[in-house]
Design a protein that fits this description.
This protein has 144 residues and is of the alpha+beta class. The chain has a single domain, classed as Aminopeptidase (3-Layer(aba) Sandwich). It has four helices and five strands. A five-stranded mixed beta sheet has the order 1-2-3-4-5. Strand 3 and strand 4 form a beta hairpin. The radius of gyration is 15 Å and the shape is globular. The structure holds coenzyme A (COA).
């Protein structure tokens, strides 16, 4: 497998992977423009592919930068290739970027997702405590 940076034209294959892994729900509002903007402003999208077919994406790791911290999300491996150590390889590469950026990195993971929690803890992530997560999805309804 190879791990390479996102390139123009990848998005359709990425969305297929996100659908297969449950990472790409429409309400999250992620699209090609968002991915490319996040890279322009200092983030990184890594994709994992088969060496024989670098257009077929079997893993993604998306690290965004808000000017202060890095956030790791949309981390997933194609179900057909899970359990082979590929997530460990991809996460190692993502954390290389974190180290180079010299910023702290956060992530959100559902408390029932044991595979992901074990993966992240094994890579050095520590549970931050009993925080809940809030979001405004429907910005049309913000009263100003
Ligand atoms: C989480 C995920 C990325 C793991 O990918 P993977 O390629 O199967 O993982 P690896 O084979 O590299 O395993 C790495 C570590 O993850 C953990 N892990 C992986 N599968 C596991 C399972 N079924 N049960 C418990 N721990 C598991 C283990 O700690 C494992 O290390 P070990 O083999 O030394 O014990 C994959 O299950 C996935 O894509 N899930 C759907 C998307 C998702 O939930 N992403 C996380 C969003 S926060």
């Amino acid at each position: 497998m190879i791990i390479r940076p996102y390139r123009k034209g990848d998005f359709a294959a990425i969305m297929n992977l996100w659908t297969a892994t449950g990472l790409g729900r429409p309400e999250r509002g992620d699209d090609e423009t968002t991915v490319e903007r996040s890279i322009e402003i200092g983030g990184e999208m890594l994709v994992m592919c088969d060496e024989s077919d670098s257009d077929r994406i079997i893993g993604t790791s998306w690290t965004t930068f808000d000017g202060r911290r890095l956030h790791l999300h949309h981390f997933g491996i194609d179900p057909l290739h899970q359990g082979k150590g590929l997530a460990k390889d991809l996460l190692r590469k993502a954390l290389k970027f974190v180290k180079e950026k010299r910023c702290q990195v956060k992530l959100e993971v559902h408390r029932s997702n044991r595979a992901a929690i074990n993966l992240y803890k094994g890579a050095g992530f520590e549970y931050l405590g009993d925080y809940d997560i809030y979001i405004i999805r429907d910005i049309q309804n913000i009263e100003v």
